[in-house]
Amino acid sequence: MNFDVNQIRGLFPVLHQEVHGKPLIYFDNAATTQKPKQVLEALTSYYEKDNSNIHRGAHALADRATQYFENTRESVRKFINAKESAEIIFTKGTTESINLVAQTFGRKFIGKGDEIIISTMEHHSNIVPWQMLCEVTGAVLKIIPVHENGELDYQEFEKLLTSKTKLLSVVHASNALGTINPVKKMIDAAHAVGAKVLLDGAQSTSHLEIDVVGLDCDFMVFSAHKLYGPTGLGVLYGKREILEAMPPFLGGGEMIKEVTFEKTTYNDIPFKFEAGTPNIADVIAFDAAIEFIDSLDKKAIKEHEDELLSYANELTADIKGFQPIGTAKQKVSVLSFNINGMHPFDVGQMLDARGIAVRTGHHCTQPLMKRFGIEGTVRASFAVYNTKSEIEQMAEGIARIAKIKNK
Amino acid sequence: MSSINEIQDEIVSEFEILGDDRESTIFYIMELGGNLEDFPVEEQKEDNIIKGCQSKVWLIADENDGKVHFKADSNTDITKGLISLLIRVLNDRTPEEIIHADLNFINRIGMGSIIGSQRSNGLASMIKQMKLYAIAFQTKLNA
């Protein structure tokens, strides 16, 4: 379908409501996106017609559910251009995907004195799992600094890379600032010293075209709910040879080949990492979300969102007291800011009074906030269904709020 | 001096004048923060921070002639406004009055829906801390 924002909005029931007597303007998309009708219908349809446990049932419903579940795996494979669907593992979310890699790959292949590189702009979920791993193994965490404009300090990154580096785990697009990192270059540089690379795609997959083969990342992680899909579902992509060499994460049903009390042998990938009954309904509904994105074409999405972001930049630029945080050249559609003399929470609450939903606070990136010497920001993040008129209303709200302390 | 309930009635009618416009109501709450007494900078310390608030709220109290006097500050304007309302109702009362005060103005003006759940929890923590101060002073006075 052609990119028609009004037509797209028609697919999202939640957008058509009033909040505090004003039409809802939903700008909290980096936290979670809304879900199109197709996704909601897929969820209902699964429970109404196909509900069944997958993979081993000897009946028609189980067969159908299994087929739909595995169809999504294949759609995800295509969506990120992986070589084979066995390299796609379903998890609870980005956070679990990173923890899985830390607790399996990390414990087996990262030892005392080895180094893991992350950056100052990581989400806590790409910091804490590595700290936990370092505590157990004696490995060392190295941090890439961030420039004032919110871009990574690439020269410092290159200095951190040594033969001790075993893993680079870096965010593709920053949730707090929107910065798109030069990940292809970073992946090649990390590989040159023999390190593996995990790419946190939580914020990039909904905005950018993803090609894991072209990027050559060893792992990529992301969440369905930031991609117009259901909550509680994430993806871990890993290269086959690495996933095969990794020990399992959780033990239980589904992940085994044979269990005896003497010795258990494990199933092949991806099932080795999917212990227990998975989140069947949400996986199946996720297929509808991917289909929705594919129907729009990622290039058109990026163009639309870029236009919204530059319009927002333009309308806020001259507001007295407006302080943008993160002005990298390459950004996804995130506008992070503060207003001089005001607490971000107050600004968020005043925008809420106008029906405008934004996020305020540290965005689970406390070290990054510390780097900028701030407690938090107000973050407006735009998606396919947002409009220029909504941006105008936000800018009007910000101008009115800023005036309180910046006359 | 008006009673606790008279002051609560006053506050309720002030909010009624503002009507349903949420933005004006929030602006008004922020303005109320300006009424707070100056808070000593040296008292902006960890010990005086009220636990359970998302924003930082410092609260101190002393007792004179059997009456409790509160001073408070916050790093956000809306929170300053909220605590200023509590202080307006509870300041310079006896510990007994504070402990038994039924702060019904909060529900009467529908504060919960104005400020949201996070801040409502914070507001409850502020009230709890003020009552704890009152209990402590009462114990001291009865000793």
Q: In words, what does this structure look like?
A:
The complex is a heterodimer of chains A (407) and B (143). Chain A is globular. Chain A is of the alpha/beta class and 407 residues long. Chain A has helices at 5-10, 37-50, 60-80, 94-109, 128-137, 154-160, 183-192, 212-215, 240-245, 280-296, 298-316, 344-353, 366-371, 388-405, and strands spanning 18-19, 22-23, 25-26, 88-91, 115-119, 140-144, 165-171, 196-200, 219-223, 234-238, 256-259, 264-266, 322-324, 334-339, 356-357, 359-361, 377-381. By secondary structure, chain B is mostly helical. Chain B has a single domain (4-142), classed as Sufe protein. Chain: A, CATH 3.90.1010. In chain B, helix 1 runs antiparallel to helix 3 and helix 3 packs across helix 6. Chain B is globular. Chain B starts with a helix and ends with a helix. At the A-B interface, helix 12 of A face helix 2 and helix 6 of B.
